[in-house]
Predict the 3D structure of the following.
Amino acid sequence: MPARVDISTLTAEVREIHDQYPNWTTDNAFVHWFLQAFLLNDVELAAKAVTGVSHDKGVDGIYLDESLRRAFLVQGKFHKNTKPPNEPRSGVLDFAALARKLVAPNAEFESYRNGLDPLVAKKILEVRDRVKRRNFEIGLYYVTTGVCSSPLKDEAEAEANQANARASMTVLDREEILNLLVDYLGGAAPPVPYLDLPVDARGVRGSDGMIQRFDPEAGIESWILTMSGSDLGKLYKRGGDRLFARNVRGFLGDKGINEGIRTTLQKEPENFWYFNNGVTIVCNSARKTSEHAQAVLRVTNPQIINGQQTTRVLSLAKSNAAAVVVRVISVPRTKKRQQSEFEMLVSNIVAATNWQNAILNSDLRSNDARQVLLEREFAKLKYRYMRKRQTKGEARRLLGSHYGFWVKMDELAQLVGACELDPYITRSGKQGLFEPPYYEKIFDNRSVENYLSIFWLGKVIKSAGSGYPDRAYAKWHALHFLWSHTRPALSRLSYAREFRRLSERKQAPASILRAANQIFLALLEFYRLNRGTGKKAIDISNFFYRPHQDREFKKFWFGRTNAARRGRLAMHVAAFKKTLQTSASDH
């Protein structure tokens, strides 16, 4: 996570969206970003929700959520000034009054609709129809990078509450928007706004069923409570997969631990509280309340950082007899606590509480801002970048099937590591690549096209090695050497794009495969000449598993015996570059 996230960081995000939709205002682009970061997590749906017109009477975004039975209406004000201006009271309250207008008598409603852009007028009518006929809730969001005072926010909320419908008004100003930006860059957005945790007080004596602790130095407040298995399972049904965004792993499939949870639930649910390690939730704030004489802890922006498997299994088991220990840690967002400090604290809690399944080095990097950004950049090109360990079935369920290609974070690290480092380091294991100094060298500021050039070169090496068992031991050295010869050409963006485009269509130039074959032939000859003889002969499985072997091969390559092979490789690489040049000019 960047050490400093401020208005300039958000301005860059908004500018990128504005470049894609030049007919929009900056406020429209800001609303698009907010919808994507706060609500939809889908670029295309967010774009459709933006009105993008002038005669919208302050309604910059409209989204109807059929599953939640809620109508979201957004007004956005984007100020990029370093010192944020105060929002005018009249503008905020006028937007809050929209809740009453949406359910007003027909004449008053039509008077409001008069003069609206036809598209916006149609959407507003759809909102009214959902609210009046299907009891949708109205959610008004006034989002600004300016400043709104607490009394003004309270007044706006009170105004919206006067509507003859279920309605709410939320004002998010600069500090809250920047907190949302931190979550967005960290892959933990859109958030779950809030959840109610009902306390299971069975067997509890002398209290409301909650243990509370406050740390005055850190400002962190914590609770320990018990929930019924069925109530905990309902949290997943309401919050969905967004509840686990800050977890370092995705769903790992139907492993033994899940089977153990199910067995306990089926055979001895009364002992679940003793056998299960429970669930840990981090949130922005929490407060005690009650509902129907039952104690409830309401948590805002909650994230289940430990207990994902437990929560998922309980959502299916519907066990009323089981009880679960729940620990809630409220880490408030304050100006005193730096954003990087908050992210580091949450990451450390995640790492410390997840120990039932082994945590890998790659897991601890999965929420790194560089990985989240890569995921978004790959998605723009229809590539699914899997930065967290999870099953492919789970990934397909979450993101659908509109991604043409899959790239795993640890496999990409291997490919780039083989190209940029001593191939011995890559052969030593994936997880070492996620430690300093290798991680910073592999995941630097290179473009996504550069990563994809290496990705597709890796496919070429795999193809050239197919059917030749001995070549598998030399594949990282082959990729390293091939990259050193193709890097100059693929450093040109137009050539890199063309190589990707052709590879995606299974039309990669035959010359690059021929080049890979020449390298493999040279590597195996290098092995035969240097493996030794008799009992001291080195097996091929160990020969390429030695440091600095790439340097020795380079010396061999430029020896007198390789003149013909050097010429053939140069010819194939030149043909490869020529094909990319010709193909790029045609497009």
Remarks:
- Residues 145 and 174 are 4 Å apart (CA to CA).
- The chain is about 50% helix and 15% strand.
